[in-house]
Amino acid sequence: MNNMQLIANYVPGKSFFHRLHPSTKIIWVLGALLTVFFIKDPLIIFAFLVVVLVLIKASNTFATYRASLMLLLPIIFGLIFFQIVAPAFPKPWTPLARLGPFVLYNEGVYSALVLSLRIISVASFALLFIMTTYPGDLFTTMRMWGVPYEISFMVTTTIQLIPILQKEMNIILSAQRSRAMQASGFSALLPSIIPVFAGAIERVRQMSMTLESRAFGSSGKKTSIRQLKMGTLDYTLIILTIIALIGIFYLLWINQGFDRSQQMIFPAPAAIILFLGSIIGFFGILVLFARRIKN
Amino acid sequence: MSKNIIIKCEDLHHTYPSGVSALQGVDLAIAEREIVGVIGQNGSGKTTLVKHFNGLLKPTSGQVFVKGINTREAEIKEISRHAGYVFQNPNHQLFAGSVRKELEFGPANIGMSAEEIEERVRLAADFFGLEEFLDENPYRLSFPLRKTVGIASIYAMDPEIFILDEPTTGLDYTRARMVAALIKKLQDEGRTVLIVSHDMMLIAECCTRVIVLWNSRLIGDGTPREIFGNRELLEKTNLAPPQIFRMAEEIGLQHNGKTPLSVDEAVEAVERGERAG
Ligand SMILES: Nc1ncnc2c1ncn2[C@@H]1O[C@H](COP(=O)(O)OP(=O)(O)O)[C@@H](O)[C@H]1O
Ligand SMILES: [Mg+2]
Asked: Whole-model pTM?
């Protein structure tokens, strides 16, 4: 595998999402984050996830998204596993089945579904934002919002460094494999990570010198070559979003977050399948990782 | 007498995942002990080609055999004991706390015994003049020395085939001369060497054979003299022969009846007063 890309970065394009002002997208991501973490009905969150997936597909970023998901899935599987046997819920828990030393609880299945769907849907939405926003535009937007110059610079530079480091990592892995390094396992860690860090430090040092020599940090007002305008569409969308958020939070308030943990009773086989699935998924992903690094 | 073929490609094609078609049907056979220069403009596919010879890249279609092993069916760590690939930038591989540990890494990976490793490290350090730096941290060394450590770390693995990608880039004249001397030594030890380089002086001086890549295809294959004497080919690929060769051609200087390839040959030719017809 020569182009291992684990963390999403900007994917050039001209889709609807690409054309939106970063401000609009940031408000959407924050709004989605707040909403999703107050909703307690897994079905509603699932519906939201489906919408996000459709948006990702529509903005031609699905391939990059899928690759980044690989990093998230082991965490999700781990979460499902632990929630089912030890739910983050007030006791008493309702047992559904027993598998060896593990007792699977109804509340566990419920909270596993809610938590994992929350994480996946918000992470997907955030990835969509990163994949469709040109780093320079993010910088301009942060400045527009009054974020200090240095911090805006740090954030956008870090985001841009990620794909570069990934590329370096690939070269380093092949250099070490040429010296017959065992491609997986703990022994492969040091030989691959040290050159990446050494390279990154060197790169950052050089960049800071380049910046200094181009008067980074000089006082006075800075202008920007890339101009970003909020269009009518952006203003309309932001106003609509705020109205919608108020409505959603009112609904969430009177319905207590659509908590259905008492009504949703899962059949025991479903709990067992989910539980075993999380174990198999967790190790499956690890094996897949190892194989990808190897070839 | 048929020569022993050590590397062979048959109708080799390689397309990167991005869709760039970097090799389009390369047929090539390299015999044991040949010193082959790979030249061509940037982006012509040189690196892509030689990365197939230790299994770093696998053919999209066609076959590559290294010592009779089909690279599709073998892992890199298996092929790399036969074919050592020296990366252009040494910083991409140096990780150990000392030059010694850096040199031990490869031999240990291919399962040499402790005594063998010690012997290989000693030979490599001696060969490259690194004895005094064995306990230094590689990152404290100058770039040319780091590059030398990179080459030595492959030499320590004792591969029969050496692949050098741009070995003189970033080196000063003296160090570049050392690379040339190193290749000569590898040749004396009976190894097969592939050199990807823009350094035509190095190619002219060291290689027994030169292949020319252009637009993902192999369009030239011959002795350095044949290649550098082929104006049409060089013009097409925008390559220039070494200055000394050009000058000798201009003034009709001859060395044993042929145009001199190196400064040494030219000097000898002048001393003997040998001229073309
Ligand atoms: N990892 C890669 N992914 C995609 N394209 C690549 C990659 N490496 C090289 N290429 C492309 O393949 C072509 C040949 O590259 P390369 O073999 O590096 O040429 P050379 O070594 O002769 O300069 C170029 O067009 C280059 O852009
Ligand atoms: Mg190259």
From this structure: 0.77
